[in-house]
Amino acid sequence: MWKQVVQKGDTVIDATCGNGFDTLAMLNLVADDYHDGYVYALDIQEDALDNTSLLLEKSLNSNEVSTIYEQIVSTFNR
User: Fold this and answer.
1) Mean pLDDT, rounded, for 39-47
2) What would the pLDDT profile of 9-18 be if each residue is shown by its tens digit?
3) By the 8 A CB rule, do 24 and 59 touch?
4) Extents of the domains making up the chain
5) At the top level of CATH, which class does the domain 2-76 belong to?
């Protein structure tokens, strides 16, 4: 269903990131060569945020992970 709505470069929210599988799927849909796509992953449980971070670190190459963290830091430091 997401593929019909979400496009490269979009900004999406995963409001309950859980173990990160949906976050990763969304990231693969929005990621583009210009780093314009964003996924905001949220959860009230710290374990869920930790699990999502671990999955992203395992699933993405180090360049992609550093880009994601740079975008997160720059977003929250605005």
Assistant:
1) 88
2) 999 999 998 9
3) yes
4) 2-76
5) alpha beta
